[in-house]
Amino acid sequence: MSYYKEKIFKSPSIEELRSKVEAALKEEGFGILTEIDVQATMKKKLDKDYPPYLILGACNPVFADKVIQAEPHIGALLPCNVTIRGLEDGEYEVAIMDPISAMAAVQNPEIEPLAGEVKQKLERALNSI
């Protein structure tokens, strides 16, 4: 089982694709809580050049509430990460984490069905971009 699913997109810029990703996630009830600009961070901290690379921390509050109620320590595995990574020739990879894989170590029978529902929502968002 892979820990992520990805698709390749053509886009004039990472910003334009990011807007589409956020809109697709919003349709599934997710908001963006965090953003890491890997390219800028690596340049600043290590003086290394990276292609455009964003890590977006997506949260669906309804499901976050359910999993936190079922497993209070689950916050160590939240939010759901979505990445947008620049490739070549105007292509970008958008990848979503697999919540089932991420939650596999959690020994709580209430979590797996919730992770399955979140996975479906993330996949629908990815497929609608």
Note the main attributes of this structure:
129 residues; alpha+beta; TATA-Binding Protein; five-stranded antiparallel sheet; 5 helices; 5 strands; 43% helix; globular; UCP021774; TT1751-like_sf; DUF302
Could you explain the architecture of this structure?
- Pfam families: DUF302.
- There is one protein chain.
- By secondary structure, the protein is an alpha+beta fold.
- It has one domain: 2-Layer Sandwich (TATA-Binding Protein), CATH 3.30.310.
- It is about 45% helix and about 25% strand.
- It contains five helices and five strands.
- The protein has a five-stranded antiparallel beta sheet.
- A hairpin with a 4-residue loop joins β4 and β5 (about 90-95).
- The longest helix has 18 residues, at about 110-129.
- The protein is globular and about 45 Å long.
- The two termini are about 25 Å apart.
- The relative contact order is 0.24.
- The model has no long low-confidence stretch (mean pLDDT about 95).
SSE topology sketch:
Blueprint: E1 4-10, H1 14-27, E2 31-37, H2 38-46, E3 53-59, H3 61-70, E4 80-86, E5 91-97, H4 99-102, H5 111-128
Antiparallel strand pairs: 1-5, 2-3, 3-4, 4-5
Mean pLDDT: 97
Strand neighbour order, sheet with most strands: 1-5-4-3-2
Low-confidence stretches: none
Supply the CATH superfamily name.
Answer: TT1751-like domain
Shape: globular
- Fraction in beta strands: 25-35%
CATH topology: TATA-Binding Protein
How many strand units?
Answer: 5
CA-CA gap between termini: 24 Å
What is the gyration radius calculated from CA atoms? Answer: 15 Å
CATH class, please? Alpha Beta
By secondary-structure content and strand pairing, the structural class works out as: alpha+beta
Largest sheet: number of strands, sense, barrel closure: 5 strands, antiparallel
H/E series: EHEHEHEEHH
Q: What is the count of DSSP helices, taking H or I runs of 4+ residues? A: 5
